[in-house]
Design goal:
The chain has helices spanning about 30-35, 35-40, 60-65, 85-95, 115-125, 140-145, 160-180, and strands at about 25-30, 45-50, 75, 100-105, 135. By secondary structure, it is an alpha/beta fold. The longest helix is centred in the C-terminal third of the chain and has 23 residues, at about 160-180. It is built from seven helices and five strands; from the N terminus they run βααβαβαβαβαα.
């Protein structure tokens, strides 16, 4: 009789230590977005990281710290508080990474840098493949609805917070629909 040798091998797979990205959108912004934070959260955003006086230059580092944990949709509204260099915009898009959609929200502020910053936002978005970076035109919406803003013509009244959130979530819904078809 021949002896049969049976070898067994067990493979142990450790559970992943990296959680799946959240389903809801993530947003970074300044005091304008802060005014709409609860409206955005109520519409399914998993986090709104918005603070008063934030400069666009803070954006790349904020996004890099979350890189692997960013969801499919990332919203950026920066530039209200000063100039917005094109290089900073590219750094933010690069920090978000491929496979995600970025929504750059234009600014509405009665300051000399408004048009230049909005030009940077549009130029930055146009330099990426279709479907990766979208422009959400808050400037046009705010101009069309001056009653949404307080006397400073920048910060959101309650109806402006709703309009801001509706505009952004509408843009995400369209992009989601387009990418699903």
């Amino acid at each position: 009789m021949s002896a049969m040798l049976v070898m067994s091998c067990a493979v142990v797979v450790a559970p992943s230590t990296q959680a799946a990205p959240p389903a809801g959108p993530y947003a970074i912004g300044d005091s304008v977005m802060l005014g709409a934070k609860f409206q955005l959260l109520a519409r399914g955003f998993y986090a709104v990281n918005a603070v008063q006086s934030r400069q666009a230059s803070a954006g790349p580092a904020l996004l890099r710290t979350r890189a692997a944990r960013l969801p499919r949709f990332v919203v950026i509204h920066l530039g209200t508080n000063g100039t917005y260099p094109l290089s900073v915009c590219h750094q933010m898009i690069d920090a978000v990474g491929p496979g995600r959609q970025v929504f750059l929200v234009t600014i509405h502020v009665p300051r000399r840098w408004q048009d230049a910053d909005n030009g940077v936002i549009r130029t930055c978005a146009a330099s990426y493949p279709d479907g990766h970076v979208h422009v959400v035109d808050w400037n046009a919406a705010a101009r069309a609805h001056p009653g949404w803003l307080y006397a400073d013509h920048t910060h959101l009244r309650p109806e402006g917070a709703k309009g801001f959130a509706d505009l952004i979530t509408g843009a995400i819904a369209v992009a989601h629909e387009d990418s699903s078809s």
